[in-house]
């Protein structure tokens, strides 16, 4: 039997392309039906206009008023309150949706969504009989859903839809198809004596692979505090694991994807390889992505980072032009969506090149207010605080980032910030220790060796300083403008101290 999705007094039979009201058929045109199926499959979530165009009119150029006509028709048939308009962004289906029927069969709208970036958090299973533990397991899953929805990268299935699987023996692949989610977060809660054990995992439902699994043991004390702490750690881990998976999948395709999301993920994959050739490939992918979605904040933001990378690495023929363009793109991303935490994070980083560190810090603080689990924003805020001489605060934010996302691609940068903070404080031995750790995590990032050379020279170990400098110079020349761009010390004396130690090691800059 084809699956049925019920809401209010309606039943949506997607395979039969039929809408029933109290058991009686409702007349809908083909496009209006497809729009409804797409909205219902993502009930409770914002579905952007561009996503609806991709799902309902794939490959076609359609005027926006076409979509508005179908939305108006649906409101007349269903009631205006079931479809909310999010001004300037898209629509949200507000009714609670309950799946019925054969979960192994996926509605077409769900299949389309499953191939994209959707993630569902299933109710965590209570392995005990204590009712307080039952409340805790439900609350934990709800916390994870609420926090994940703040990520600018994820499409999170609404709680009402995923909690329809509460208390069932669920086959993950079937649940994923029924919900239209490729990725599923699941877990269990068990009490053992005075210890509460939470197990969680992230699964690629399409490939039936576990991408990440973790166990958390906590003393049985304040359940609310435990719930908040564990949900934060789970959320902070899921996003980078998910992004690495999407980047890997697109990088393995034989031909470049034509869809915007595939191009964006391919651009991220190239960007994190960090060589000049890979950064140029990332820019090419982003140019194609922006042809498909000219105002996409994520694409604009990542393109801004490619300009910043060219300045950091000393590749830019005209660094000033690259900095201006990075700031322009970042500001455009923020204007497109001022609630996008990644856009504010990008603008904060771009502003650091202009010398406006207070405003850069304010942007990063706002990014964290929008998405408190945003580890990269915490790490970048720590970096700028270190260069501002606020080393104790810098370390706090860096530790927050590392604890939240210990496998993040930014990890080397965060450890590097601890080295910078120690350098500012004059503790060259500690600075060298962290610089070595940063270089070990990303031996292909030349600036880690420049930092190590400065720290070793500061400690009086000129032989090892020269060795580190030689490793750095093997990647290419690196002059004072690039050094200053990557090391925005607010106190000129600190920059001169850093450059002076490099000169002691033999740097000609």
TrEMBL record:
InterPro entries: OmpR/PhoB-type_DNA-bd (IPR001867), Sig_transdc_resp-reg_C-effctor (IPR016032), TolB_N (IPR007195), TPR-like_helical_dom_sf (IPR011990), TPR_rpt (IPR019734), WH-like_DNA-bd_sf (IPR036388). PROSITE patterns: OMPR_PHOB, TPR. One of its GO terms (cellular component) is periplasmic space. One of its GO terms (molecular function) is DNA binding. SUPFAM superfamilies: C-terminal effector domain of the bipartite response regulators, TolB, N-terminal domain, TPR-like. Residues 2-95 bind DNA. The keyword DNA-binding applies. GO terms for biological process: phosphorelay signal transduction system; protein transport; regulation of DNA-templated transcription. Keywords: DNA-binding, TPR repeat. TPR repeats lie at residues 341-374, 375-408. It comes from the Bacteria. This is Tetratricopeptide repeat protein. It comes from Caenimonas sedimenti.
């Amino acid at each position: 039997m084809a699956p049925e999705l019920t809401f209010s007094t309606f039943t949506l039979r997607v395979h039969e392309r039929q809408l029933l009201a109290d058991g009686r058929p409702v007349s809908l045109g083909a496009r209006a039906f497809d729009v409804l199926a797409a909205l219902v499959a993502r009930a409770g979530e914002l579905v952007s206009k561009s996503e609806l165009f991709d799902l309902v009119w794939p490959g076609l150029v359609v005027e926006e008023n076409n979509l508005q006509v179908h939305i108006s028709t649906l409101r007349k048939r269903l009631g205006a309150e079931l479809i909310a308009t999010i001004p300037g962004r898209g629509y949200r289906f507000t009714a609670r949706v309950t799946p019925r029927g054969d979960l192994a069969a996926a509605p077409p709208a769900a299949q389309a969504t499953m191939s994209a970036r959707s993630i569902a958090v299933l109710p965590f299973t209570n392995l005990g009989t204590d009712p307080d533990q039952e409340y805790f397991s439900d609350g934990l899953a709800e916390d994870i859903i609420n926090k994940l929805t703040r990520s600018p990268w994820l499409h999170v299935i609404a709680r009402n839809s995923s909690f329809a699987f509460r208390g069932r023996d669920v086959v993950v692949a079937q649940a994923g198809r029924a919900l239209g989610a490729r990725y599923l977060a699941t877990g269990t809660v068990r009490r053992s004596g005075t210890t509460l054990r939470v197990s969680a995992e992230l699964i690629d439902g399409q490939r039936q692979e576990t991408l990440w699994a973790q166990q958390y043991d906590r003393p049985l004390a304040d359940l609310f505090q435990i719930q908040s702490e564990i949900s934060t750690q789970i959320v902070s881990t899921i996003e980078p694991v998910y992004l690495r998976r999407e980047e890997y999948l697109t990088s393995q395709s034989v031909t470049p994807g034509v869809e915007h999301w595939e191009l964006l993920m391919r651009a991220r994959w190239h960007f994190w390889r960090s060589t000049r050739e890979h950064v140029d490939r990332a820019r090419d992918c982003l140019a194609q992505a922006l042809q498909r979605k000219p105002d996409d904040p994520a694409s604009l933001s990542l393109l801004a980072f490619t300009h910043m990378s060219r300045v950091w690495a000393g590749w830019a023929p005209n660094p000033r032009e690259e900095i201006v363009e990075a700031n322009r793109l970042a500001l455009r991303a923020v204007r497109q969506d001022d609630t996008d935490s990644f856009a504010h994070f990008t603008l904060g980083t771009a502003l650091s090149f202009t010398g406006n560190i207070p405003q850069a810090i304010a942007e990063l603080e706002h990014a964290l207010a929008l998405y408190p689990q945003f580890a990269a924003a915490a790490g970048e805020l720590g970096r700028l605080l270190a260069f501002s001489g606020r080393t104790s605060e810098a370390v706090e934010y860096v530790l927050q980032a590392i604890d939240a996302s210990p496998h993040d691609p930014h990890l080397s940068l965060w450890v590097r910030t601890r080295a910078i903070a120690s350098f500012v404080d004059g503790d060259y031995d500690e600075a060298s220790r962290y610089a070595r750790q940063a270089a070990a995590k990303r031996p292909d990032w030349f600036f880690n060796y420049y930092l190590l050379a400065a720290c070793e020279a500061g400690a009086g170990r000129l032989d090892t300083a020269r060795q580190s400098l030689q490793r750095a110079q093997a990647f290419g020349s690196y002059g004072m403008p690039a050094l200053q761009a990557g090391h925005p010390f607010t106190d000129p004396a600190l920059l001169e101290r850093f450059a002076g130690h490099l000169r002691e090691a033999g740097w000609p800059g």
